[in-house]
Each structure stands twice: as structure tokens, then as C-alpha cells.
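Re-running the complex after MR caught last week's input typo. The corrected sequence lines follow. Everything else is unchanged.
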Amino acid sequence: MDDQTLPTTNYELQATEYLAGWKRAQADYQNLKKETERERSEYTKYANERLLHELLPMIDQLSLAMQHVPSTENLSEAQRKVWENWLAGLRAVQGSWDQLAKNVGLERISIEGSFDPMLHDAAGEESAEGKSPVEIIRGVQDGWKLHGKVLRPARVIIAK
Amino acid sequence: MSKILGIDLGTTNSCMAIIEGGQPKVIENSEGARTTPSVVAVTKTGERLVGQIAKRQAVVNPENTLFSIKRLIGRRWDDAEVQRDHKWLPYKIVQKGDGVRIVMGGKEYSPEEISAFVLQKLKADAEARLGEKITEAVITVPAYFDDSQRQATKVAGEIAGLKVSRIINEPTAAALAYGFDRKKDEKIVVYDLGGGTFDVSVLEVAYDAATSQNTVEVRATNGDTHLGGDDFDQLIIRYLVDDFKKTEGIDLSKDTLALQRIKDAAEKAKIELSSAIETEVNQPFITSGATGPKHMLIKLSRAKLEQLVGDLVEKTLEPCKKALADAKLSTGDINEIILVGGMTRMPLVIQIVEKFFGKKANSSVNPDEVVAIGAAIQAGNLQGDIKGELLLLDVTPLSLGIETLGGVMTKIIERNTTIPTSKSQIFSTAADSQPSVEIQVLQGERDMASDNRSLGRFTLSGLPPAPRGVPQIEVSFDIDANGILSVKATDKATNKEQKITITASTNLSKDEVERMRKEAEAHAEEDKKRRESIEIKNMAETMVYTTEKMLKDAGDKVKVEDKKEVEEKLEALKKLKDSDDVEAIKKAADELATVAQKVGAAMYQQNQQAEASQTPPAEGEAKKEGEEPKTEGESK
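Corrected-run output:
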């Protein structure tokens, strides 16, 4: 832009300023529309994120309960059958959850291999034979992804 | 020109915001969170982590996971604060010259370099969200930061690739977020209780003749650098551990895994008790005892929580008293109180602060984000996005619309719509061969036209004769930036138009607007019933009209017995449609619809059978018209 076309008068300066402001407002509006559209499709995809996040502790606790099934060694045959039948029911409940999880796009985070802070939350470290440092020894709490996005990282113990 | 980012670089968490469309907006980071932990780490494999992912490996890598760097930035090695923190920080800090260096992954870093990693992440995440480069930022610092600390924060920004346009005080940013900078001579207290620190500041808004603008001055500041939400969590954890020991005889304080679960549960319970009176800490299989697994099932009431943490909250009052004394003010001199930091959501905190200052505190802006929002507003001011009164946009205080069939108000522009704005809607006629439409422009929130304020009326005449519901009359409302309302009605068939200009649509006083709104709320239920009743009657009227037309058009195609059935139901509806028995009208309309549909279906079937036995029509033969009348108030 040469000197002759530069705004010089007050009105011209004001007009330039207003035009710039108008353009900015238009641009912001267009961007807002795009952002709203992006957010809308995210909401649709992740609408249940919060609810599922709230449900996860219940699923964890069911999982914990299943890890602490008492021994049936000292029970009679009849009592063992009753107990195992009840357990079968609980396992079916767990199975229902796994099916639901699959249907809504939930996926358990793998705890194979090395610790990855994008997927895992290190709860502690232990010595373990045959495991290299930062390799995951075991899981303490399941982690979940929802449609590929980490909903909750898996809590793991890693090798020293 | 790229946007300037507003950044709250916090001790525990950071937050960023930007001005978009003249309004501040918090930007989410790449993980989708609105705040980012101010944590940096180097893993055993040499990878650098920032934010939440750095926190996730803190337990197994404490010497190389850096947090609370803000406590060290810009300080000298022999500062009392540095020497105090040196004792408890799990990572190594060393002296370099008279400054401080932090050891991470075997290398030494300055506090500015570490803070720069956090700022770099915020910058990158903002750029990814906004789709544009960010080169400038406004960063906030505590009001008590000295020159050296401010300069070091600026250097951190520069290392991160940001030109720091301004360093502003956190309490000032909070005041900006509430717009309190516009209130001359106001005395404002900002009470900031965050994750790890407590700050209280006394501000005064003064008029600067040199710049012809208001400035916010910090009159006094005080606080406790080691008092925050984490301390509250620790008290709850201790209570839970002690209670469990009493009932189960097992000490969980040495069980790292159990403690992590208890810590999460404690924080969750603390948050829940801000809205609930009681909660339960429910952690089954928390540990194993001699007799098998043990469960932590402890009820925690709000009263108990307040008993546990009451002393901590009371501890915040002493700095408040000192700050007021330093500012030579009393509690009665304070005009506004602003609450900042997540802990200020606790009802006990709000109660004690309000009791101390003798007035209600402001917390309507998210206390975790208010400082970043204020930083964004400052950024906007610098950029010219917000220029005092020039770009302040008004809103319509009350809804605007017209009167439609049955005396109801049909809203065209909802209240609180930002102006300038335009909206239009298509309407039609209520009677056959109606020659004109009267447009009555209304303002208010009530459902019935007569209960609202009439702003004006005009008539659009010269409509060509047509069955009711067929003409298309477009009614457009336009409000310009000065609040002047223009209402235009255009007949789409003839392009005939008529309009009216009203200057008084935004002239109502605040009190009058409030009164009208409250009235609408008070009558909401009865207005709703009246409106429903009218809509049902309108629907019944339309149904009578369309069914009579259908019978007329169908002629002898309809079986005699079917026609008789329809006519009976039609008569029944005609008798009821002008009554006030909404349920009876609905029932009669449903019954008419059922029999009319049967007739309609039979006609279609007949038509198909006739077509099947006929030869296809020759080219150019016109099809019979079967247009449906438009519904009243059909939208564009």
C-alpha cells in the first residue's frame, strides 16, 4: 500500500478500524459456527462420558469382589453347588457389563508391555524377575477408552 | 493479527483463555481438560512429560517429577521460602550462583525453563484448538510477586516462544473477569483458596487522569503459601484411616495402594459434600485381614467435614484481617468480594468469608477459571477486541413478537438476544379470502397477547383471495445496533409490503423489565394452560375446515356409511371446539382424525385400483391438484 492510499483523516482511520473490527467479528462468528459443529459431534460421540465415568467405580468394585471369591474347599457338595451357582450369576452380571461396554464403544486398556503415561497411571513399583524396568507387572484398576479417547487410565504396578 | 492468549500459570494447575466474539472463552488442552496440572517430568527413558500425563507417573518417579515450581521462580537460593521448600520437595534443588536450579533427569534446569515447558504445552494446545499460531500472551502472577519473580515469569514465556505483552496480578485479573474494573472508587477483596496456596488481596479501582481510564491498584496482599485444598484432603484422609483403624484394627497409612484409593475417595467426598448433606465413602475390598477381605464403608456428613476442616478455614481469616489493616480499611469499606480457587466452592468457606466481610461474595464465574478469563480480557483490551463502550453489545431485555390467531403471542426474537439482529417467520391467513392481515407488535414474556406491551400495529392489505392457510406472509423483525426495531410484513405472492419502525423497544427501565419477567414467571403455569387451550381450539378449527374440504373434494368417491361417520364426528367436534373443555376437544379431534384417515386411506386405495385398470396418461395431461393448506404460524 503506497502513501497515497493510507488512511489519513479521522473518518478514514475510524472506518478502517471499524472494518477491521467487523471482519474480526465475522471471522469469530464463522469460527464459532465451526467450533459449535465440532463440539456438537463430540457431544454426540462422548455424550455418555460423564455418566460412564461415574459408573466405573461400581464396575471396579464388582471386579474386586470377583477377585476375592472365598474358597469352597471346606464346604459340602451341596453347599458348593449353591455357592457356585450364585457365582455363576455374578459372572453373568460381569458378562453383561462387558457386552454393554462393547456396545457403547468402551474398550479396556491393555496392560501388556511397558508403562505409557498416555494410557496408564503408575500406582507403585516392585521388583519382579524377568521384567525390565517400567514394564507393567500387574493391573490394580482397569482403565477404559471411549471411542478411542482415554476415559480413565489403567492403574498399574510397574517393575523397578 | 493473531490472538493474545490469557494464561493463569498456577502453582498446582494452569488455565488458558482467549477472546472470541468479544467474549472470553476457556480453551481446553489436548486431553480435553479445561485446566492443566503445572507438572513436568522426565521419565526413566528420557521422555519429557507435561501436565496430567506427568502426574500419572509421579508416584514411581518422584525425583524427576517437578511440581509447584512457582514457589521457586525468580527467587534467590537464600530466600526463606526456598530453604523451607527445599526440605519437603521430593525433587532435588541446588544452588547456582545466588539462584536456584532444579535437577531433573540428571540435568539442571532453571525454574523459568521448567515453567516454560508448561507454557509451551498450553501454547501448542491452544494453537491446535484455534487453528492459528499464538505468539503473544498475558500471564498472571500473584500480587506479592516482586520484580525478579515477574521478570522470571516473563522469561519463562519467552523461552516458550511467547511474547509476554503484560504480566498482570491474579486478583486484578479476577476483578476484570467480573467487570469490576468499570466501577470507580470500589474496594474489592479477592479471596483465593487454591490447591496449595491461599492469597487475599485488597484492590481499589481508581481513575487515572493521565490515561482517562480506570486502573486497578493493589492496596494490600497477604496469605499463606502452604494452605490449600490438599491440606483439606489430608485431614479427611487421616479421619478415614483413623476410623478404619478403630473399627477394623488395621492401619492403612502404610498401604500405598489403599491410600491412593482413599485419597481419591476423600477428594470425591469433599466435592460431593459441597452440594449434599451426607455422603458415603464406599471402598470395598480395601485391604485383607486375618478373616478375609475388609471394606471401608464410612458415612461422612457435611457437619463432620466442617468439624474436621473448620480450623483450616478459620486460619484464612487472620491474613484477611492483616490485609485490611495494611490497606487501612475495615470490612465495612469493602464493596465486593471475589472468590477464586476450587476450595471456595465449599459452603463453609463461603459462609465464613461472607460472615467476616458482612456481605455476599461473588462466585458466579468458575473459580478455577476466573483468573484466566481476566487474563484473556486484559489480552483483548490490549488487542483492541474489547474497547470500552464502543463494542459493548446490547441485548433485547424482553421477547418481541406478534399477536396470532386466538390472541396468543408468537415470539419472533427471544429475550437476551444480542443485537443487532434480524429474524423472520412465515404466517398465513385465518379465513378464506381474507383481504388483509393486522400485525400487532408485542413485547413481553406472557403467552397471551393482551398481557404483553403493545409497541405498535399496522395492516398489510390487498391480499389476493385465497383459501385460509394458503397465503404466505413473511413477517421480519430487525433491531439495529441502536435498538431501533423495524417490523415488515411482505406478501410473498404479490411482494406487497408494509412496515413500521419503533424506537422504544429497548427503552424500558431495569425495574420494569424485571417486573415483567417476574410476572411471566408467576403466571407461567396458567399462561401455559391458556395457550394450550387456544392452540387446541385452533387445531380443531383447522381440522373442521380441512375435513369439510376433503368431503367436498371427494364427492361421491366416499362410501355413504363412511361419509355419515365422518359427518357425525365432525358435528361433535363443531359443538365442542368453542368450549373450554380442552380434553373433550382433544378427544373429539382424535376421533374425527381416526375416521377421516379411514376415508382418506379408502380414497387412496380406490385411486390406485382405478389407475391399475387404466392406461397410463398421455404426455402433457395435467394432474389433479390436491394441495394442502398451510398451517398457521409455519416457520420459514
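None of the earlier attempt is carried over here. The two ends of chain B are 38 Å apart (CA to CA). The interface with chain A takes residues 20-22, 31-32, 43-45, 49, 53-54, 56-61, 130, 256-257, 260, 282, 284-285, 288, 292-293, 384-385, 391 of chain B (CB under 8 Å).
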